[in-house]
Amino acid sequence: MITPSSHISTYFSHSERMFPVIENGKIPTEQFLKACQGIADFVGFLGTTFIPVKNDISTNIIKVKTKYEIDKEKCKFVEDLVDDDLENNNGKMERATEGLLWLKRGLEFILEFLTEMVRVYRSSLDKSQTESLTGCICNAYNNTLKRHHGFISKQLFKVVILAAPSRSTILKMLAEGREDVNDICIDHITTHLDNFRANVEHIVQYYISKKLDTPNPLRINRQ
Question: Taking the model in full, what pTM does it have?
């Protein structure tokens, strides 16, 4: 018996891993952090060479979560958490705001990678030609994290990129043990990307408006 695709769950279809809907211009902190943990766990699927990336994202989640748990009502929304952290530190970034800064940079990288993987998969008639993820990860890195890294980090990341698993390996993990559901996995990733992108872009702009980060020149050139 064939199960309808709408009834098939994959890694990114679970509600706890979905990024929240922005409410009146603000991002609900609790669901945002849960979704971020889902991204960190996904990075673990990319193999042992990506463990430093996963650990970096997880560490920054903890920094933000620690601030949130001190006063959940006051920090109910990400923007309020940032504002409170700045207010308590004379307008300067402290542990939570710095953690969120690097968290959103990591999220930008994964967002770009997943977007590129979906684009390449869907635009290729011969899916066997989409097995290598090296190009997707390299493009994502160049468009996001690279500008924030020094020479040593850039060289280390070259090694990480070359050790990336195949596209089919990733989709098999996302399928949670199911066979022949690549298209469904891609559909679920695409749906997941909507709120993921909205959350990340919102935080990026919020940090720029607070002069806590600078615009990505590559984004400006695309516009």
Answer: 0.92
